[in-house]
Design brief:
11 helices, ATP binding, 13 strands, PfkB_dom, fructokinase activity, Sugar kinase, Ribo/fructo_kinase, alpha/beta, UDP-N-acetylmuramoyl-L-alanine:D-glutamate ligase, 9-stranded mixed β-sheet
Length: 314
């Protein structure tokens, strides 16, 4: 088996090196991000075997993305599109503690991922196959390709993991809810923020949301609650995870770190309490610096946070 396999879009990232907004600063940094590749990196840093599958443009951004992901110890299967560019994400920080993200995705390579871009042997040999709602929102071709891969993984006996990861700028709430429910019919592990879960199953307390999602058939449901921690419902057992306190620099990528931590522990055979503790700690660590994935923690980082924590409240 090949551990964790993720499929989805990765984007170039340009972000201000300090607060003040792009209308006031004169320098910026270049990196990349993407929910599925972020999760793969987060899991790899915690010792899991992980793979990312995607499509990038034949450009400097695409080459940088694939090189950097490989540099994190993640296996990469990336198709290079000769015609379409790599998508771009611009992260603006108008003030300390505030982040504004703008996407330039029209006609990008990642949204045109096709069945031939997804090695079926890699998918069917995975322990866990993970994808997010972003792939469903990028367009019909992306949605069809990723859903087909997820269903093929399920048919091969692979555990299917799904993070709703709603992006309101990509589609309507009605379209998102319908697409999420389609996946809930076959996903084994489901991650969602409480607001995202409500799009699929209606408003309710975290416990109610988890119950309704589990009714579709998921064995494990994890509701991410941000500063309030997280709640899991696994095989009928409810577990509440308190948050870890850190000084926050940037929250983008924290949810992916949480998922990567949970899945890494899942692959390691850890129990629910350990999976949730590592997930929460990974999410907290990811908030302590800039970038979508650069602050993803190692095992040592997790151990230090669990041992002592940080006195500054999130």
């Amino acid at each position: 088996m090949t551990g964790l396999v993720t499929v989805g879009e990765s984007l170039a990232l340009v972000y201000g090196s300090r607060a003040g907004g792009f209308d006031a600063i004169s320098d910026a940094s270049v990196s990349f991000g993407g929910a599925e590749s972020n999760v793969a990196i987060a899991a790899a840093r915690l010792g899991a075997e992980s793979t990312w599958i995607g499509r990038v443009g034949d450009d400097a951004f695409g080459r940088r993305i694939t090189r950097a992901i490989r540099g994190e110890g993640v296996r990469v299967h990336a198709t290079v599109d000769p015609e379409r560019p790599t998508a771009l994400m611009v992260k603006d920080r108008p003030a300390i503690g505030r982040t504004r993200v703008v996407y330039y995705r029209a006609g990008n390579a990642g949204s045109r991922i096709a069945p031939d871009d997804v090695p079926q042997d890699v998918v069917s040999d995975a322990d866990i196959f993970h994808f997010t709602g972003i792939s469903l929102a990028l367009g019909d071709q992306s949605a069809a390709t990723v859903l087909a891969a997820a269903r093929a993984a399920k048919a091969a006996g692979v555990t299917v993991s799904f993070d709703l990861n709603h992006r309101s700028k990509l589609w309507s709430t009605d379209a998102a809810g319908a697409a999420f429910r389609e996946v809930l019919d076959f996903a084994d592990i489901v991650f969602a923020g409480d607001d995202e879960a409500a799009l699929a199953v209606g408003d309710g307390a975290p416990e109610e949301l988890a119950d309704r999602i589990a009714a579709y058939g998921a064995r494990e449901v994890v509701i991410k609650l941000g500063e309030r921690g997280a709640l899991a419902l696994v095989n009928g057992v409810t577990y509440e995870q308190p948050p870890y306190r850190v000084e926050v620099a940037d929250t983008v990528g924290a949810g992916d770190a949480f998922v990567g931590g949970y899945l890494a522990e899942h692959l390691a055979g850890a129990g629910l309490a350990q999976r949730m503790a590592t997930a929460a700690a990974a999410g907290a660590c990811a908030c302590r610096g800039d970038g979508d994935w650069e602050m993803m923690p190692t095992r040592r980082d997790i151990s230090e946070l669990l041992a002592g924590g940080d006195p500054v409240s999130r």
